[in-house]
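Q: I'm building a small set of examples for a reading group on sequence design. Run inverse folding on the following structure and report the sequence directly after it, with nothing in between.
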């Protein structure tokens, strides 16, 4: 499907931006000038920039072709820094709900968690390296992704971001605490075998399919760890058949929207990362809407054809 300059997809993104801006309660302040441009225009601009991989100046010209009164690149940068991460996280959640409704599914077959990184123009200092000199490396946005699999479709249901080399377990725990989706299994690599994460998975009535190592030097004794180890041994096929799904989603996002941003601000860079995964869900929702519309047209044509045939005879 063509993504750039797709009018139907642009209309869907604009509609979702308006819905999101209405659900955001902005407390008015007495100081300063009132906002000249509404919130949904700024959210739409952020998603459009990520969708078409535009610079701020190119985004300014693109918006002027779409709206009669569009903000300039300096206003866009200022307003992007005011957007909260929770806005895009809410967009990811609401679009995941709508996709579930279109698929007529009440729960996921499995949830899969994994971490990745998106680079941006900053450096991190590694003080834990050997030697006297402090090593500087290109920094990245540590991203924890939670994907749900249902009816052969992989849906992003949660994304959390942190500084470079953040703990993936700490990024996953807030998503599990606020999780509002049901699933049969939870899949993850050996990194997610901590007792706290496994306890939360059990509280959510999910079977943890996480590889737990039981070696001679490191025996598994905790009851939760033994429970996870038994589940993994019983359901290795579930792990092998579905574990690749999250790698597939991350690969699609990076191939379509890139894996590095030319920006030095951490907050704006994290917004671009969240916008990537929000667009993944929006594109999937748009495809399902197109499929539903085509099916409706086919049924209408078949009905009109049958009526005409019956009318002749």
């Amino acid at each position: 499907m063509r993504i750039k300059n797709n009018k139907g997809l642009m209309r869907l993104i604009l509609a979702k931006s308006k819905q999101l801006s209405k659900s955001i309660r902005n407390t008015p302040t007495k100081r300063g000038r009132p906002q000249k441009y509404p919130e949904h225009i700024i959210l739409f601009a952020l998603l459009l920039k990520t969708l078409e991989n535009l610079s701020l100046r190119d985004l300014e010209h693109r918006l002027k072709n779409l709206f009669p009164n569009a903000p300039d690149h300096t206003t866009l940068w200022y307003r992007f820094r005011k957007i909260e991460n929770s806005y895009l996280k809410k967009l990811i959640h609401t679009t995941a709900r709508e996709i579930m409704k279109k698929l007529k599914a009440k729960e996921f077959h499995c949830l899969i968690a994994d971490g990745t990184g998106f680079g941006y123009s900053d450096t991190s200092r590694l003080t834990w390296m050997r030697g006297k000199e402090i090593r500087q490396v290109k920094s990245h946005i540590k991203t924890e992704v939670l994907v749900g699999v249902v009816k052969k479709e992989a849906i992003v249901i949660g994304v959390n971001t942190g500084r470079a080399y953040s703990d993936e377990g700490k990024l996953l725990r807030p998503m599990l605490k606020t999780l509002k989706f049901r699933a049969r299994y939870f899949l993850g690599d050996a990194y997610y075998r901590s007792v706290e994460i496994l306890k939360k998975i059990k509280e959510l009535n999910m079977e943890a399919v996480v590889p737990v190592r039981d070696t001679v030097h490191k025996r598994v004794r905790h009851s939760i760890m033994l429970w996870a180890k038994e589940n993994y041994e019983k359901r290795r096929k579930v792990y092998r058949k579905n574990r690749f799904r999250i790698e597939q989603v991350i690969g699609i996002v990076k191939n379509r929207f890139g894996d590095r941003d030319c920006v030095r601000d951490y907050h704006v860079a994290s917004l671009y990362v969240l916008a990537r995964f929000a667009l993944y869900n929006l594109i999937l929702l748009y495809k399902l809407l197109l499929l539903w519309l085509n099916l409706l047209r086919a049924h209408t044509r078949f009905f009109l054809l049958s009526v005409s045939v019956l009318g002749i005879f």
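The longest helix spans residues 266-312.
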